[in-house]
Amino acid sequence: MAAGLEVADIFRRHGEAYRQSHDTHLGRLERRVMSAVEMCRTARLGGHVQQCQDCEALRIAYNSCRNRHCPKCQGQASRDWLAARQADLLPVGYFHVVFTMPPAIAEIAFQNKQKVYAILFRAVAETLRRLAADPRHLGAELGFIAVLHSWGQNLHYHPHIHCIVPGGGLSFDQTRWVACRRNFFLPVRVLSRLFRRLFLQYLKQAHDEGELQFFGSIANLAHPAAFTCMIKAARRVDWIVYAKPPFAGPQQVLAYLGRYTHRIAISNSRLVRMDGGHVTFRWRDYRRGSRQKLMTIDAHEFIRRFLLHTVPDGFHRIRHYGLLANGHRQQKLEACRNLLKVPQPEEPVEDLDTVEAPPFAHRCPCCGGRMNILGTWKPRQPACRPAWNDSS
User: Could you give the C-alpha distances from 208 to 107, 116, 224, 228, 234, in angstroms and in order?
Assistant: First the structure.
């Protein structure tokens, strides 16, 4: 088993051959992602030299690519995002709700990511808001975080949205907190049918307005009659929506969000080995009792599957709705805390040591002392422009 195998190693060894063999089909975004991952934390992106002020140990640190598809650049982004969300959590149960689409619709999404992903978010948000607002179900305004994922454990294309939703909402006159039943959020079957209806309605509208493109095996969907037939078939299929049991508390929600918000298609820790032209990685078979298995595929196939999950530039994979929408988040959360009779979060106290710390200050791995910057150097070549960072 190769120690420390990374996606970058696979790209460096097989990336150029993959580019040549897929030259006519590889887009600008995919090429930039491959280049960023290959150069991440190497001398090609520049770096700096640090020295411990106590034991004088030296360390060379290379710069990161900061591309949101890079397995090595998501840890700090996730920690920063979670720190910002700490104050948004309420002392109530939280539910995890997942919305998926059937394979026929996923094919359309792959060729129209920007438009169909936007439709997916819109349909999910409206589904949750409508049902929560219905007095027969909750009769309140929800707040939730929605995160787009496009992969399954085997790296195949499987777009879906994870929603983290508090178990209750604010009444529309803002005079009371309306709680869900202890272990029940909203009826899943009703969620599924409304989600399917809204999504197909918006998809049909986009087709009528000429906002969708179709290539290859689904090129015939450009014709209105064929597209209408596909819509009718999709209405007869069950769209899977499921709600997991509620979390034990807000801290468990934070830990869970940390695993989901800035996740990419595959982490370096799941890679097992690279032998010749093949890559082996771990995956979990949820159809077989979540058993962990090994999968070995051709290196070019691995790269192809990884690149299936690139997200268009500027597209937010993490979105906030309802009570958590950016425009009125603090005002609505303050009202919720008052009704739940819990104290408002304290303002963070600035750490003077942190404020006075020099740029790039780190702790020495040898003695724990402060590492100071001795010098920096610029990249040997311009870095690829990083994809939009989901930090909002």
Answer: 18, 14, 8, 10, 17
